[in-house]
Design goal:
The structure is a homodimer.
Chain A: H1 3-16, H2 23-34, E1 39-40, H3 41-51, H4 57-69, E2 73-76, E3 84-87, E4 95-99, E5 105-108, H5 111-123, E6 127-138
Helix pairs in contact in A: 2-3, 2-4, 3-4
The first copy, chain A, binds a DNA duplex (30 and 30 nucleotides) through helix 2 and helix 4.
Chain lengths: ~150, ~150
DNA sequence: TATCAAATGAAATTTAATATCACTACCTGC
DNA sequence: GCAGGTAGTGATATTAAATTTCATTTGATA
């Protein structure tokens, strides 16, 4: 999905909700799409200031929520103070392994896990809208190696 | 595992770390084990005040972390402001489905998902210490039913 | 183009979580 | 059992994320 199409989808979403498509909202979405990985609102705001010094903090907060509601972002929670967001378009769905020592984040995909989730949800007649699988532990660099013992 | 045994395990953990086993720590662990479901630190504190009015807020925070470190509690994050904790002993490991409308939380077990997680982790030589799978969506009561359309 | 509600931005506020620090009490060695 | 040092506690202050408030601006429609 091209950037242009994503912007258009966002505009459409906003319109459908009876809201207004503003410069700020577009700028924030663009910056968010450009940002890599998992950004906090703070980080996004800092990035935005460079090109759009006038933009307000609250607006970034408000807009990231809109973007999330539109299904273009996912909220992550790596046990930090601030929440992080990542884009859901352009990349396949994936989950995260977080190294609790070096804080590195490894992304992985597992269609089989996804399928099992759907099975479980069906059993409970639960309609999945999103999910979040976070594995915490030690990455291959930080874990104790046998050879060192 | 009986309460008495859990307390003993906690004492042992604390001792092994060269820390001190205090009345407060015991009281907090007891209250936590008694509390049902998924409590916030705030809720736990309120509960504790009834029996132990002198107990401090900071101590509850500090101790819940200790309990977590000891492997007796898991940190949850249901996209709320405050974090929640649940006990990991006495119950089998499970994951959560959170209804974004009524906030109901459904617990489920899936050994198959667990196994797949282990497989993925192995592939990356990642050592799992804990994990968290949260599915967000609409529960069977809140989801739109075909019959109503 | 005028109108008006929605959106914005600056500042204030709320709230969770952490840090500080004087005082307390746990524990080890005697 | 007692003393001393030391980790723990609790009240308060502080930090930091997120939200609210409100006067002003701006987008879209009639």
């Amino acid at each position: 999905m091209e950037i242009r199409e994503i912007l258009e989808a966002f505009r459409q979403y906003i319109k459908d909700k009876g809201l207004r498509y503003t410069k700020q909202r577009e700028a924030i979405l663009k910056a968010f799409l450009r940002a890599d990985g998992h950004v906090t609102v703070e980080e996004l705001y800092m990035q935005l200031r460079k090109k759009h010094p006038g933009i307000g903090f609250s607006t970034v907060y408000r807009t990231i929520k809109l973007i999330e509601d539109a299904g273009l972002a996912t909220r992550l929670s790596f046990d930090e103070r601030a929440e992080r967001f990542e884009k859901t378009v352009g990349t396949d769905h994936h989950d995260h392994m977080v190294c609790i020592r070096c804080r590195r984040v490894i992304e992985f995909e597992s269609p089989r896990i996804e399928r099992l989730q759907t099975e479980v949800a069906d059993k409970y007649r639960f309609q999945i809208l999103s999910h979040r699988l976070e594995i915490f532990g030690l990455c291959n660099i930080c874990r104790p190696h046998k050879s060192l013992v």
